[in-house]
Write a structure and sequence with these properties.
single chain
Length: 416
Amino acid sequence: MVPLIALLQSAILHELCPKPKKIATVRLPRRQPLLRAMRPRDPEEDSRAATPLELLYDLCFVVAIAQAASGFHHAISAGHGTEGLLAFFWSFFSIWWAWVCFAWFASAFDTDDTLYRIKVFVQMIGVLILAAGIPRIFEHQDFRLLTLGWTIMRLGLIAQWIRAAIANPNQRKTALRFVFTILALQTAWLSLLLLPPEQWIWGGIPLTVLELVAPGWAERAGKSSWHPEHLAERYGLLTIIVIGESVLAATLAIQAAVDQNQISAQLFMVILGAPTILFAMWWFYFSRPAHAILTSNPAAFLWGYGHSIILGSAAAVGVGLAVMSDYETGEAQLSQFGAGQALAIPVALFIASTWAFHLRRPGPNAKVEAVQVMLACAFILAAPLTSYAVVGIALALILITFAMSRCSITAQPSEN
């Protein structure tokens, strides 16, 4: 009887005085490390995504791309398309190559420590100075400020590669090759400033070729550990940024026309066609994932370098839409066909280059897709022959995007 009473007392006390619950521990965020060993990142790391620092770095390029697009827009509308195209080429190459060099290094060696962040900050300063120098190229063929910005940006990149060389004996030769090529080529770019502007271009062409060849030579000493999915995401985000800049360029041009009370039926078509074209471009680009084709350095370099055409044409689409708006309000010194071609050519180039470098896959559908892309480009280039160029271009984009998406859905089961 006594044990039973003791058991009941124990149960009552347990209910009345329950044991204190364990307090959940909260893990405080770790302090930002000053320095980590700059080891190569795992190229097969799961869920590798763009970092907030990379996204901030990309935002610096929004300003630079907007400057290049604005200069090109005003040059075309003023009837100086050839001069504007050359200035746009050099400006956009500087922007794109600065971004490429950072993106590939970060994919392989991002440590996200304090020293790494400071060096990226130095590169960001260089990018902003580069952006500030772009209007001088369009107005006076003055490359000095752009070259200064590029030099500052690349000094930060050289410091990153030196750090990678010190920390990684197995990849030291590759890292030192990058240091050597960047330093030598940047010295050559600085020496071009001694030439008159009209002779600068003849020195710039061979240096551009060497810039594109240099990474392949450096990687022969040993492949850096870039991450396929990470790079595919980084390029996709930059594509969105460039398309977004085209949205801005078109919006500003249309806003100027509205402010002048020059709304017409043709301008209304431009207003409706602009978001349709840009949305279709986005859909077309992202109709297939890209990381699956990044299986080797040659394949990845071809894909990455091909994006110079993809991104350049995407930026020029916004320019074309702004020129179309200027034409409809009488601000552009162009014929109807000339204004239409300012939009049709970059759209067709975007479609062709995106399919060739980003979307094309070997298989039974490749030939069918090639014919579809060629027909779409031909229709786009012919659209300015009519009074409804924007409508025709938008319609062709919608159809080719639908066809590509349909092929992607059809091929999905076999890929799995």
